[in-house]
Amino acid sequence: MNSPVTHQAPAARPSAARQPSLPGRPAGVRTVQAAFAFSLAALNLRIAVASLSPVLKEVQHDERLSSFGAGALSTVPVVCFGAFAFIAPRLTRRFGPHHLLWYALLALAGGIVLRSVPGVLALFGGTLIAGAAIAVGNVLMPQLIKHDFAGRAGLMLGCYSLALSGGAALAAGLVVPLESATGWGWRQVLALGAIPSLIAALAWLPELLAPDRRSPNRRRQERVKQGRADTAAPALRALWRDRTAWAVTLYMGLQSLGYYAILSWLPTLLQDHGMNDSQAGWMLSFSSFPGMAASFAAPWLQQRLRPAFAAPLAASLLCATGFVGLLTSPVSGAYLWMTTLGLGQGLAIGLALGYIVARSPDAHHTGRLSTMAQGIGYLIACLGPLGLGLLHSASGGWSLPVAVLLAVLVAQTVAAFGASRDRHVLASS
Prior knowledge:
Helix content is 78%, strand content 0%. The protein is an all-alpha fold. The model is unreliable at 1-26 and 223-233 (pLDDT under 50). Helix 7 runs antiparallel to helix 8 (153-182), helix 14 packs antiparallel against helix 17 and helix 15 (277-304) crosses helix 17.
């Protein structure tokens, strides 16, 4: 619980509702500016991944990748999301969350550009750098919401989820049309994804230049305070013994597995059933629009739907409808299946992110839980793109891969029982 405002010095511990203002700027203006910059940064956390799948066949042809190689390329970012999440707390202690996010946005832009350089080494190396930068951003975002926007956590969670879905929609929907409109190849078009990252880094600069962030003494004090908080905050190994933490982690991982499997292979699935490349890419983009609405509404539904399990159950039923549709009539009913699947996956990611914030009592717990849920969760999720590709190659079709996604959905629903319980991690300690 936050202490009453009358018992703390305003400059000592800025809250979401009363951030220190830049010279000449009211606190309310800075809050809006910070929220806008935060949302721009979040928009970039899926662009590099979603822009690849509509042109995956072109990349596979030009770089002479096997089906396994194409699946591995789609899997690299998700592996990075998991593996590099575990170094984010150390980097946060070293640089502070606001500066670290800025560095991550610059690294993301560099990785996207490198990925577009000819050669398999540059392709995979750039993808790895971009994935590592996104991994750091993934961990930071819930912590920044809890720290900077504590009084507006529900709204900012909605904006965060909306930005993630919006970035994926823009990337998936614009790549092929941009190729046609400009006459460029996939390399040049994918390189354009660096521009939004640089714009977001520019928009985030005022957060670094604020008096409470740029003062060397202030930064040293914050690092000392962070070190003290780290001593009191739970170690990851403590969370690994907590059932609620594991429920949140599994829910994050399993819903992400389904999301990234579809993100990587949906255009190919539809193309194999006779849909043209442009239309298949549009279908992936279209599914993001209902997903955006559902993810934005997820915090509201999480707080108000009772029993608490109703929201994740609705997400699972919507996803199941979409998967069954892809099994039975993937092309003729594409718009219906993409609507239900988008709603289900958008609601699921919004709930997963919301559980990280809601199940932790303060920003330091949020940082630890975010590291665990996204580190382990995305290592689980990386099985989606690679596994679906292997199952497709082994079976020669898409029935078995989609059936496996339905089975994963059952496990996701079971994990939701624990994740949706109104209980903080380490509540008994």
